[in-house]
Amino acid sequence: MSRHATPVPMTARKSGPLTGEAQVPGDKSISHRSLILGALAVGETTITGLLDGEDVLDTAAAMRAFGAEITEAGGVWTVHGVGTGGFAEPADVIDCGNSGTGVRLIMGSMATTPITATFTGDASLRSRPMGRVTDPLAAFGARAHGRQGGRLPLTLVGAADPVPVRYAVPVPSAQVKSAVLLAGLNAPGETVVIEREATRDHTERMLAGFGARITTETTNEGRVITLTGQPELSPQTITVPRDPSSAAFPVCAALVTEGSDVLVPNIGLNPTRAGLFETLRDMGADLTYENLREEGGEPVADLRARFSPDLRGIEVPPERAASMIDEYPVLSVVAAFAEGRTVMRGVKELRVKESDRIDAMAQGLRAAGVEVEEGEDWWIVTGRGFGDVPGGVTVESRLDHRIAMSFLILGLASNRPVTVDDAAPIATSFPVFEPLMTGLGADIARQTEPA
Ligand code: S3P
Question: Does residue 200 have its Cβ closer than 6 Å to ligand 1?
Answer without folding.
Answer: yes
